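W.,

You were right to be curious about this one. When I first looked at the sequence I had no strong expectations either way, so I just let the prediction run and decided to look at it fresh. Below is the sequence, 195 residues in total, followed by the output.
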Amino acid sequence: MDMSGAYIKAALDSLPDASQKVAFDHFHVAKALSEAVDNTRKSELHRVDYGLRREIHRSRYDWLRRGSHLSDFARARMQALSASLLDTAMAWMLKEKAREIWHTCYHPKQSTKAWQVWVEAARSTGITALRGVANQIEARLWGILNAMRLNVSNAGAEALNSQIRVMRVKARGYRNKNRFVQGILFHYGKLDISH
């Protein structure tokens, strides 16, 4: 699930042993980190030489990509801009380190220690957006560790939600809730309608 306080409270109140079952999806952690990188880039954009601003703006999606998916051109552009965007480069590096922790630390004690080191490193940068994510990760570390231990994701549910949204847009809305529910069941309910 996502890291919303309301969801967490509801789960902890209603599920037995919820602290061992609730897992925070990788997507939500990655999203928070990507937003921190982008917000840092935006704040630095106004402090750099005016001549660099267009190139920095063009590099926006480079900073949001994972390192393994960068083209040689994007990597070279990021390296060239790093001298002017020190905080953004640091935030991107820590985003990549968090991805590495998620995908390579499998032992619970190793994972806990790696995340604690990451949180301290993020706080020590002094970057406001990163400190916010570090606080969030520290507070929700138990659920992040559960997700890593259980190897679960809500990607299937998110994909279905996306398909339902597309269905609603294509239909240009529904007259009432009942018809909307019928549309969802018809298209995605996997019902056998051959009878």
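Here's what jumped out at me. Residues 5-150 form one domain. And, maybe more interesting for your project: The chain has two domains: 5-150, 155-188.

Coffee later to discuss?

I.
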